[in-house]
Amino acid sequence: MSFELLVSDELGGYIAELRKADGLSDIERASIRRVGKDYDRNRAIPADLIEEQSVAQSQAQTAWVAARRASDFAAFRPHLEKMVGYARKFAEYYGYEDHPYDALLEDYEPA
């Protein structure tokens, strides 16, 4: 539900208006750029894939706790492989020039 709000046309309209606004400070313009970039990236991913990934992430977290307690990486491995698969899919939706990692790095080291 929160994802739907983050990718709504209404939010997109507000961001578009703010991108054209005059009289904004440097900090406000930087904020709009960041929020706009996040909005554009979120819109690149289909909502059903986000929902699917969220469920898998929750299951992976639960599996990780149990596997860690039991020192059993093999029990967690399929969940990890699934999450890496989602990351790869997301990178394809985001787009990249050289390497899929670049698309994912944007979340932690914005260009």
Shape verdict:
elongated
Number of strands: 0
Distance between the termini: 29 Å
Radius of gyration: 18 Å
Q: Report the mean per-residue pLDDT as an integer.
A: 93
Portion in beta strands = under 5%
Work out the count of structural domains. Answer: 2
Structural class: mainly alpha
SSE pattern, N- to C-terminal? HHHHHH
Number of helices, where a helix is a run of at least 4 consecutive DSSP H or I residues: 6
Q: Mind describing the biggest β-sheet?
A: none
Roughly how much helix do the residues carry, as a percent range? over 70%
Unreliably modeled segments = none
What attributes characterize this protein structure?
single chain; 111 residues; 2 domains
Task: Provide the fold topology.
Elements: H1 2-6, H2 9-20, H3 26-44, H4 47-69, H5 73-94, H6 100-105
Helix pairs in contact: 2-3, 4-5
Explain how this protein is built.
- By secondary structure, the chain is mostly helical.
- It folds into two domains: 1-44; 46-111, no CATH class.
- The chain contains six helices and no strands.
- Helix 2 runs antiparallel to helix 3 and helix 4 (47-69) packs antiparallel against helix 5.
- The protein is elongated, with a radius of gyration of 18 Å.
- The mean pLDDT is 93.
